[in-house]
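note to self — DONT lose this again. spent like an hour looking for the file last time. sequence + predicted structure for the chain T wanted, 292 res
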Amino acid sequence: MNIVASRLREYALLVRLHRPIGTLLLLWPTLWALWIAAEGVPPLKLAAIFIAGVALMRSAGCAINDFADRKLDPNVARTRERPVAAGRIRPVEALAVFAVLSLVALVLVVQLSPETVRLAVVAAALAALYPFTKRITHWPQLFLGLAFSMGIPMAFAALGRPLGTTAWLLFAANIAWILAYDTAYAMADRADDLKAGVKSTAIVLGSFDRGFILLAHGAALALLTLVGVGQGLGLLYYLGLVFAAGSAIYQQRLLRTRAPADCLRAFLLNNYFGLFVFVGLAADFWFGHWRL
């Protein structure tokens, strides 16, 4: 029984059950899209499918990421104790976990519209591709943005809404936000990544890293403002954006030192950025778009 428990613990570490931040960062924009596409609270079953799908695909993404980085992670202080890097889980096991979790997610999504299923296949392909991009481009964060944003068009498709201006503004806003927070995340590993030969925006941007994060956060907020204008949203939504902007500004203070611990703290604060946007959006729909 102890052996079984030990193996389950390693699998839990592989899919980062102990670190839910990745799931949350993937969840918030999906919820933004669901609420906007439904013009309020979406059907409970649909919301449950998307929440479960987010958790499954984030976990699957961690498994394929550790498989792809099995020779790189031992050279990075933050990742050398991951189960595959440390040799506690074989690479083929990580591939199997990715396949099983992706299959379970597919079982969920086939209950939705054919268009949603097609988009889900694209999302899975992007998630599988992302871990390998850091070897060939300094912009793997852009590929992560594409993969982490696919829940947005999927939400619109699942609710029978056209993929019009609002959906793509949300999509672009989320990519800008991901470029911001994943660059902060990459800043924490910059020294080790340089030694390991891993590429990232933090490396290619150099001393412009903080400025780029500020611009990316600003672009995300500007695009979210356009979403609000286009959808006729009210004061509570914009109040959420103000709080999100406050989070982004505070992150700039943390990033001044460029110390790895402070960069990770800035990255983690993006959970509140996404939360503030969602709370403002949900409250705005609940209270009927208050205006001055």
